Amino acid sequence: MKKILFVLPSHDDLGNTGQKTGYWLEEFAGPYYEFIDNEYEVTITSPKGGKPPVDPKSLLKENQTDYTQRLQNDKSAMEKLENTPILNQVSASDYDTLFLPGGHGPMWDLSKDKDLKKIVEDFYNDRKVISAVCHGPAGLLQATDKNGDSILKNKRVTGFTNSEEETVKLDKTVPFSLENRLKELGSNFEKSENFQPFVVNDGQIITGQNPASAFLAAKKVVEILRNME
C-alpha cells in the first residue's frame, strides 16, 4: 500500500488584516479522496500538530465541491484533521509521496519551517514524488540538493501567480510573491490563465497553479506511482 504524507499549515493570521487563513479546503479534499479511493494510506501532519486552521473563505458555499462536502461528512477524515501529529514526529522514510496543499497559510509558516525543509530534502534525495499546489510550493522554497542548489533550480514548476494574487487583492498582504520567489530560485515558472486547472510535472516534482489544479495534481501523482510499481 502506498503511503502519502500531507503537510498542512499551522498559521492562521492573514497578515495584519485581522482576517483568518490556513489551508484551502478544496486543495486538501480532492487530493485526499483521490488517494483514499486508490486505497493509499494517508497521514496528515502540521508544524504544531492538532487541528490545522482551514481558510474560512474556503468553507463558503461557492467554494464547496463534491469532495469538500464528502470530507465534512466523513467522520474518519475529520478525526484525522482534528488530531494531526507534529511535523517533527514524522519521517520521510515512512512515505512514498509528499503532498502540500495551498491556502495562504503556508506562505507564513511552511515557507520557513526547518522540519519541513529536512523532510522535503529527504524525499528529494530518495527520489520520491513531491507535489505542491497553489501556495503549497512555498513549502519547497528552502530545500536544497546535495550540491546546495535549490531543488527547484532548472525545474518546470507552477504555483499561485502574481496575477491571481492581485485578483484576490492579497498581493500587498502576503509576505512575498510566490511566483517571484520561485523564479529567483532558478526554476522555469509556467502558468495558465487565472484560476484555470494547470499542472506541471518535471521528474519527481509535480506542482499545480491554483485550487482548480489540486485534484489533477493528485491524479498525476497516482499515475507516476503506478508507473513506478
UniProtKB/TrEMBL annotation:
BP GO terms, sorted: methylglyoxal catabolic process to D-lactate via S-lactoyl-glutathione
Protein origin, superkingdom: Archaea
InterPro entries: Class_I_gatase-like, DJ-1/PfpI, Prot/Nucl_acid_deglycase
Pfam families reported in the protein's UniProt record: DJ-1_PfpI (PF01965)
GO molecular function, one term: glyoxalase III activity
GO annotations of cellular component type: cytoplasm
Keywords of the record: Lyase, Stress response
Keyword Lyase attributed: yes
Domain DJ-1/PfpI residues, every copy: 27-223
The protein's name: ThiJ/PfpI domain protein
Lineage, highest ranks first: Archaea, Nitrososphaerota, Nitrososphaeria, Nitrososphaerales, Nitrososphaeraceae
